[in-house]
Amino acid sequence: MSLSILLTGATSGVGLQLAKQLTLAGHRLIAPCRSPKALLGVLPPSSRVMVDSFEGCDLTNFDSVKATATAIRKKHTQVDVICLMAGVLPQKLRHHAGIEEALAVNHLGQMLLVHELLPLLLASPNPRLVIVASGLHAKGDSLPLTALFAHSPALVGLLDPGTAVAPPFNAMQFYGLSKLYNVLTARAIASRAQQAGKTLWVASVTPGFIPSTGLSRDASWLGRLFMSYLMPWAPFCVTVEEGARRVGHVVTSLPALGSPSGTYWAQGVPAEGSAVSRDPLAAEKLFGLSMQALGLTDFLGPPK
Questions:
Q1: Model confidence over 150-167: pLDDT tens digits?
Q2: How far is residue 169 from each of residues 84, 107, 119, 151, 174, measured CA to CA in Å?
Q3: Phi, psi torsion values for 128, nearest 5 degrees
Q4: Looking at the DSSP assignment, which residues form a beta bridge with residue 204?
Q5: Residue 275: CA atoms inside 13 Å, Cβ hemisphere, count?
Q6: pTM of this prediction?
Q7: Could you tell me how far CA 248 lies from the centroid of its own chain?
Q8: In which band, very low, low, confident or very high, does the pLDDT at 229 lie, cut at 50, 70 and 90?
Q9: Would you state the torsion angle of the CA atoms of residues 293, 294, 297, 300, taken in this order, to the nearest 10 degrees?
Q10: pLDDT band at residue 42, thresholds of 50, 70 and 90?
Q11: Is 67 exposed, middle or buried, given 0-12, 13-18 or 19+ CB atoms closer than 10 A?
Q12: Cα(199)–Cα(217) distance, rounded to whole angstroms?
């Protein structure tokens, strides 16, 4: 069965490989991105016709996200799956409109895109939302849950003074915390969908540790060399192709496999996730704070 799949992050790394695999399998792709050339330029002609790209989507710019969503709604009436694949691993503290970069790209920008496209997703008879996280989300457990908000001048005012703790910048820990947000967001949306009586299956999934993706593009030349040519030989690493297959399995096969909505997936099977990622109170706290940050008052409507 051919699915209509909206995929962020489709122009590089695992997202690009996933786009290839999905289109070759006959699925139709909606690809919001900054520039579609990186995607369309590597696809065979038979796959290119399966892609509807929307140029100019900047996840650090919420007006850009809303404009992209408006353009998609004008052209499409239904999306079967939204797969949030875009991600960055900043090597230094950077802000966009006063919001820390990993928080903007890996979490808030994509959450806003989902909110804006919910009518299209819920029009599907079997809607699915898949959020690509990482096994590194466990590193986020060691930080205050609101650390990325505390490092965002535009959002720190949303925090209680006692919780506005901004720990020293650490690239891997901050990235891990943004990935923890992904797992918690999947759990929060799954819970809200159930409370509102909506048929929406939600999952988070890690593709595995893939050192050769574009996540290391901001590292030093020595770091890029290590990640691209030496680290892939480590036994715990997986290839870009395998990582894409793991994500694609969740995107196209579920909920037929019977796992509960909100499940975290690793190595192709349901997994436990870190201690904080399983905390429903943490999920609701993060979701409520994220709604405030985006200026949203409603997500999936009132409970039944």
A1: 999 999 999 998 878 899
A2: 25, 18, 38, 9, 7
A3: -135, 140
A4: 131, 264
A5: 5
A6: 0.91
A7: 14
A8: very low
A9: -120
A10: confident
A11: middle
A12: 39
Select from 287, 98, 87 the least CA-distant residue to 187.
287
Q: Which residues contact 301 (CB under 8 A, 6 or more apart)?
A: 196, 198
Partner residues linked to 130 by β-bridges: 83, 203
Query: Which amino acid, 142?
Result: S
**Bridge-partner residues for 51, per DSSP?**
29
Phi/psi of residue 155, nearest 5 degrees: -120, -10
Closest Cα partner for 104 from 290, 237, 234?
Answer: 290
| CA gyration radius, the chain | 18
C-alpha–C-alpha distance, residues 17 and 101, integer Å = 24
Tell me, what's the pLDDT at 259? 84
pLDDT in tens, 175-212: 999 999 999 999 999 999 999 999 999 999 999 977 65
The answer to whether residue 219 scores a pLDDT higher than 80 is no
